[in-house]
Amino acid sequence: MIRLLLRSLRRNVTESRTLFALTVVGVALGVASVVAIQTLNQGSMQAFDGSVRAISGQAELSVLGMTPAFPETLLTTVLGDQAVAAAWPLCRTEVAVQGFPGLLLDVVGLDLLAPVRLPVAGRPTTADQTGGPSAGGMDGVLAALTTPGWVAVTPALAQQQGWAVGDSLLVSSGSRTAVLVLGALVDFQSLEPLAPRTLAVMDIAQVQARLARPGLVHQIDIQLRAGARPEAVAARLQERLGPGVQVVTPEQRSQDAQGLLAAFRLNLTALSMISVFVGVFLVLTTVQASLARRRGEFGLLRCLGAGPGQVVGLILAETAVMGLLGVGVGIPLGYWVASLNLATVSATLTNIYVLAGLEKLTLPPRVLAMAVGVGLLGAAGGALGPALEMARRDVVVLLAPVNLHEQTGRAARRLGWAALGLATLACGWFFLGGSQATYGGFIFGGLMMLALPLIVPLVVSLAAGRARPRGLGPALSLRNLAVRLHTSSLAVAALAVTVSMLVGITLLVGSFRTTLISWLDVTIRADIYVTTESWARAGNEAFMGRDLLADLRAMPEVAAVEEQRRLQVRTWPEGRRVWLNGIRAAGIPGAELVGRLPLQSGRPEQAAAALQEGEILIGEPLSRKGGLAVGDTLRLAGPLGPVAFRVGGVVYDYTSEGGTGFVTMETLLRHFPDEQTNNAALFLKDGRQVTAVRDRLRQEYLGSPLIFRSNQDLRREVLAIFDQTFAVTRTLQWLALLIAVLGVALNLVVQSRERSGELALLRSLGARRQQVFRLFLGEGLAMGVLGLLLGLGGGVGLAALLILVINRAYFGWTIRPSLPAGDLLLQAGLVLAAAAVAALYPAARAGLSRPDQLTRDDI
Fold first, then answer.
1. Which pTM value belongs to this model?
2. 104-107 own/partner pairs: CB under 8 Å, 24+ apart
3. In this model, does residue 647 exceed pLDDT 90?
4. Closest of 341, 429, 399 to residue 730, by C-alpha
5. Phi and psi of 707, rounded to 5°?
6. pLDDT of 29-86, one tens digit each?
């Protein structure tokens, strides 16, 4: 059997190179989709874990604040526990480096006498060279403690930016600036290869004094004595330290980040599997074509005593080899696709989820194993049906080439009823309780995607049956799809599934973008927005000075200044991350402020009064995920314990999928003291030129870490971030479309071979090469049109599922459906053009048929 398998594979490669290559490429593209997404998904978690391990890799427990920062005096309580061998505080913030646009340093302030390993790149520096704490012994520590602004950065960053030990860096945290002196190079990546190159180390006292807040820390790392049980120590410390902090293991920190990214990663994974699903149709087409061509060979094997199981095994083994070749091509291709999307995914992680950005990718063993599994299972899934069909057939039947198509034609109606039954069962299950399941929306969508291909043979046969050919024209092209239904329906099905995804995602993104624009029209009312260079990543510590705010209020062009403090807190007792916004709107009436927070439920007058009375307005995602409505109580973890807010209204909010709450600044400071403003909005007096005032402010504060944006500037940036977030999704769409188009090409290549006698007969009857060429080109376009029409219907259903079910369940946003007609028309044209291009090679090949190729068997 092995010799027969090798001989069969050799024949496939030598005699059917095009079919073989198309199949391998199809499998490779499906594998590439999965590898790309899983590499990015794993990379997002590895970036977070790498950042944690680089600094806290020796810690067995960590104390984290339920609010951004907590008093450093808790360190005494931690050290008082008999199971604690050592503990040290950390103060973390991100600072912008002036003169290096877009560069943010992740500054970690720590006790340089703590037992923390910090490797130094290259030869250890000496005290004379202001060496670091790990290079130069106590002299290096002394230099780090006594040199104002001493900082150590990674060698990779220093090399990239052209820095050297002794250089000075002007950095900013909020509106504050500080001069740092590069004292040493710390190679975190020697300890943790995935550590970000932007990590920097300073003495904790210097960080608190220059960049953060004195007396407050963000983390305490703990080493335990031998034999101590981390869970027991964590529980004991949690009770002693109180509700303002949480004591967690490294695994719990990773799980928290995974929960934050769960919806983002799940959506990409589901979309990548559609490419695999489409690739199965490609394998189906190839296997069926191969079996039809080799039916005599299998009939002979059966006559010589080969059993059905041996026939199935031979076919699956051949397909497995193609699957493995596809895996071999798909893994590097997927890694390349992931690398192309590295920057966009990194921007999503930093802009939306405020996590460590991606700098480099790896291929974890689990991703490689998944790629092999997907390639082999996808290939086997496509080959299993034809293999079983071939094994069951009578030897005489194997010699009748048209029988396969005739049988599919007879089964088309049964398949249609099966599609209807499956769709009915899926709808019944979903609407009678399945929607409450964790992955209910995805399961329902998968079942409907399975039902779509089942109805394709019926649709093709009905559409083709209405065609009345009067020559070698479009009607005959359409009619030929029904004649070769067994293979043409697979190509149409693959295209229909792909177009469904294409249309569904386009409708979702277009509707979301339109909804976001409408929301921005209501919420972005100020004329000029003021923030700082470090606020995007270090919002918790990026404050604006009171003197600066006073100067802005004193400007003659300014009618009112709205201040905002945005900090990340956790719900109590669940511990879910939410954003709390404190707003001070001097000169802006409360009702107008509520008007800029569009209400989903509640009355504007009551909501305005509720804000002034200390209540909270919550965003829709927080309302949905927390099961909260007007009048309910939201409990947040405060610095001294849980803080209860009565919900005064629910507002539409698209700033965070985790959830957002809005209170007055006075209410915020009552429960979260010492918090300061981190951005401001200026309302200009009537008739003032926004652009002129913005430009004057930029010139006046030139060299400061302030960013001034007009209303239109901010809107453009928000929409640019939105478009960037969906960049990976678009890559998946086009990968799936490419696989489906390959299915069209493969189908027509198969037909050009199977119909060689028919084409020769047409040529002998006087058909010109151009006519045969147009006949095949018409078949490709016919498949494109049918796939497009079916896909449009499936895409509308998929969009409804994404917008009304999956989006609300996983993200909590209300998206108002809209029709991006321009995008849909463009995609429809691209689909038809792609189908036509895919048909060019098979059509040209068919046009080369000659009358002398006609044999007695073809007459």
1. 0.84
2. 104/198, 104/534, 104/537, 104/538, 105/153, 105/171, 105/198, 105/199, 105/200, 106/51, 106/196, 106/198, 106/199, 106/200, 106/356, 107/151, 107/200, 107/201, 107/202, 107/207, 107/211
3. yes
4. 341
5. -120, 125
6. 888 888 888 888 888 777 777 777 878 878 899 999 888 889 999 999 999 999 999 9
